[in-house]
C-alpha cells in the first residue's frame, strides 16, 4: 500500500465524540505535519453500522467488528470511545498485548482496571494515552505528568463533573431545590435519564482516581475514593453557607501524606475567595498544589463532543510522533496496587453543622459543651430563632471524621436537638 | 566514565532559578526514574565563581567558562538561565549547532531571536524547550503546543506580568495611585530598581510573542507586539470602570484572523465576570480560545525561583527522555518570519473614554455627535457634574483604532471638551 508509511488508526465507537474525532482526522495535511507521518483512519467499528451518523464514513472503513480493529496489522493506534467496562477492557488488553498503542476517553475503565491496562502497556512497550478521560478539552494529564513532573504535587482539588456543578450553581443563584435544578439540567441535556452517575459522585470519583494516579505516580482506583453525592444539599444550606462566607461545590479532593493517599468526592463548603468557589455552571476546574509551585488552576468546559475530541486527537498525534520516532511506551506510574488509602474516619477537615434546637436559655451552652467533649472546637456560629425551634449553624475547626460522628451521637442524645439538618465538610481553612 | 550512559547537563547561570534547578537536579534516583537514564550536572558556569551561592557546587563542576559548556562533549543539554541577549544568544546557537539540546527560560532572547534559534535547532535535530520562559511554573508551552495541537486556537489573552498585576490590584482595592502601588511592589521585591521592563509592557510583550508563536505555529516576535504600559492609569479610571461593571488589567492579547496575527499589550477594561478580571496580586493567568474547545484558563504564580525551576526541570526531563529514546528534535513552528501582523490602527475593540467637558446644556449632544460622525457608536455613558466642569465617561461599541484617533481630534476641536483624561481599550463585548 502506498501509505504503509502512514500511522493506521482504528476507531471503536462513533458517537458524539467519535464523530468529531473522525472529522478532525480528515485534515490529512495538518496531521502529517504535526505527527511527522500521515495519520489515516483505517477502520471504524460501531455496534450498528446501518444507523445514520453525523459523519459519512466510507463503506470499506465502517464496520461492526471491534475485534478485527484490535488485531489487524494495519492498525497502529486503537482509539476507544465506546465507554463502559466490557467489551472495552478486553479489546484494549488485546490491542496492548499485541503492541498496539491505545488512546481512550474511558474514565470508568481506567478507574476500575487501570492497573492491568498500564501493566500490559508497559510490558508491551505500547503507549496508553487518556487525556480525554478527565476534563474534556482541558489539558490535565500531560501537564500534570510531564510539565509538573518535578513539582512534587501534594494535593488536587477539582470540580470534575459539569452536571452537578450546573445544579449547584442554579441552587446557589436561583434558590432552587436540588430536584428543580436537576430537572433544569435534564432539560438542557446535561443530565442523563439516570443521573446517579453524576449526582452520586461516581463520575467525579473515577476522574479523581485517574488524576491522583498521575499526580502521585501510584495507582489510585475508583474504589479507593470515598464518595458522597449532592442530593441532600438544600437551598437553606446555601443561604447559611453564604452568610458565613462560603459557597457549596461538589469537590474531588486527593492528597498525599507520607505515601498515604486521601481521596474523596463530596459536597463541600468553599470560602468565596477560593479559586474554585466561582467556577460556574457546567464548567470544570482543577487546582493542583505543591510546595514548589504553589497553586495552579486549569479550567474550562469539561465535556462536550468537540472539546473532548480535540483532546483525543492531541493524544493520537502525540502517540503518532512517538511511533514515527520509534519510541517505546513507558509508564511513569509504579506497578501494583499497594497504595495505602487513608480511611475516611481519619480524614481531618472543618465541618459545617446545621442543627434544629429547642429555643430556650441554656440550650446552646449544652450543644457547645457536647461538641467540646469530643475535642472539637467551634470556629463560628449563627443562631436563628424561628419560634419554638431555633436553627444553629456551626462551623468547626479541623476535626477528624470519627470525632464528628461521635459529636452527632452526643447531640442526638441531648434531647434539646430536634434534628441535625445537615453535616457538610469544609474545604480550605476556616 | 562510569556514567557515560548518563545525560550530561551544563548550567549557564546560578541565580535564584539556577540554584533551585541545581538543587532539584541532585535527586538522582527520581530523575533517573523519570528520564529513563541518569541525569547529571557536569558543569555550571557563572560570571563570578568565587561569590557565595545558595547551593554548594563542587569545585570541579563550578567554573566561569560558558563556552566550554556549550562545546564540551560530555554535555548533552545546555540549560540557559543567564538571561539577556548576549552572550546567551551566541552560546545557544553554538550549543544547538553542535547538536546539543537547549532548555531556556530566556523570554527576551526567544522574543528577539527565536526565529534563528528554532531554525538552528531544527537543522541540527536538537531539542529547544522553553516552558519556564512564560508563566513561571504554570504549564503553558507544552499544553498549548501538544495537548491543544488539534484545537485550532484563535486567541490568547493573558495576564503575563506579576508586577503590573500586583500594582493594578492595589490600585483597584486600595485606591492607591500608580506611583504608590509601584513603591509598594518595590518594597515587596516584585519590581526591579528600573521598573520599565514590567510597567511599560516589555516583559509581557516578549511572553506574548512566545505564546502566540506556539499557539498559531508561526513566528511572532517581540517587535510585532504593539505595546502600552500602565503608568497613565489613575485611581479615578478604576472608579468609573467599576461603575460600568469593569476592572482594569494589563492584558496581553493575540488573535489570528485568516493568517494575519494581531498582538498587543496594553491596559484594558475587563468585564467583572471575565475569567481574568479577578486574577489577584502577582498571579498570572492565560485564557486560550478556540472554536472547538471554548475557553480554557491556566493560572498560578507566574514567577519565583522555585516554581520556575520546576518548569526548567520538567523540560530537562522531557529532553532527557527524548535523548534516551534517540528522538531528534523537530519544531512544530514553520520556518521564516513571514507572519503578517495587523497594524494597531486596524485593530477593532470597544473603547472607554474619560472626558472633562464644560457643564452646560447641549454639550453632551455635541460630544455624541462628534463621535457619531466617525461611525463610532456609544454603548454606555456616565456623566458627573463637578461644578463648571463635568466628567463624561463613555464606552463605545467596537471601533477601529484609526476611528478613535479621529474621534479624539474632533473632540479636541470642539471647544467644549476641556481634556481627554484617558482612552483605554475594552476587552470582551460591551
> In this structure, how is the largest beta sheet of chain A organized?
11 strands, mixed
User: Would you state the CATH class of the largest domain in chain A?
Assistant: Alpha Beta
Structural class determined from secondary elements of chain A: alpha/beta
Which range best describes the helical content of chain A: under 10%, 10-25%, 25-40%, 40-55%, 55-70% or over 70%?
25-40%
* Low confidence ranges of chain A: none
Pathway (chains A, B): Amino-acid biosynthesis; L-methionine biosynthesis via de novo pathway; L-homoserine from L-aspartate: step 3/3; Amino-acid biosynthesis; L-threonine biosynthesis; L-threonine from L-aspartate: step 3/5
GO molecular function (chains A, B): homoserine dehydrogenase activity; NADP binding
Active site (chains A, B): 207 (proton donor)
Binding site for NADPH (chains A, B): 107
Question: Can you walk me through this structure?
Answer:
- 2 copies of one chain form a homodimer.
- By secondary structure, the first copy, chain A, is an alpha/beta fold.
- Chain A has 3 domains: 7-134 and 305-325, Rossmann fold; 141-301, Dihydrodipicolinate Reductase, domain 2, CATH 3.30.360; 345-426, Alpha-Beta Plaits, CATH 3.30.70.
- Chain A is built from 14 helices and 19 strands.
- Chain A has helices at residues 16-24, 28-35, 66-71, 88-97, 107-124, 141-147, 162-174, 178-187, 196-199, 202-216, 235-243, 305-325, 363-373, 401-413, and strands spanning 7-12, 39-45, 62-63, 77-80, 101-104, 128-129, 153-159, 226-227, 246-257, 260-271, 283-290, 294-301, 340-341, 348-349, 351-358, 378-386, 389-396, 399-400, 417-426.
- In chain A, strands 7, 8, 9, 10, 11, 12, 13, 15, 16, 17 and 19 form an 11-stranded mixed β-sheet that branches. Chain A has a 6-stranded parallel β-sheet with strand order 3-2-1-4-5-6, sandwiched between helices.
- In chain A, α4 (88-97) links the parallel β4 (77-80) and β5.
- The radius of gyration of chain A is 24 Å and the shape is elongated.
- Chain A starts with 6 loop residues before the first strand and ends with a strand.
- The mean pLDDT of chain A is 94.
- β12 of chain A pairs antiparallel with β12 (294-301) of chain B, so a sheet runs across the interface.
- Chains A, B: NADP(+) binds at residues 12-19.
- Chains A, B: The active site is at residue 207.
- Chains A, B: Keywords: Amino-acid biosynthesis, Methionine biosynthesis, NADP, Oxidoreductase, Sodium, Threonine biosynthesis.
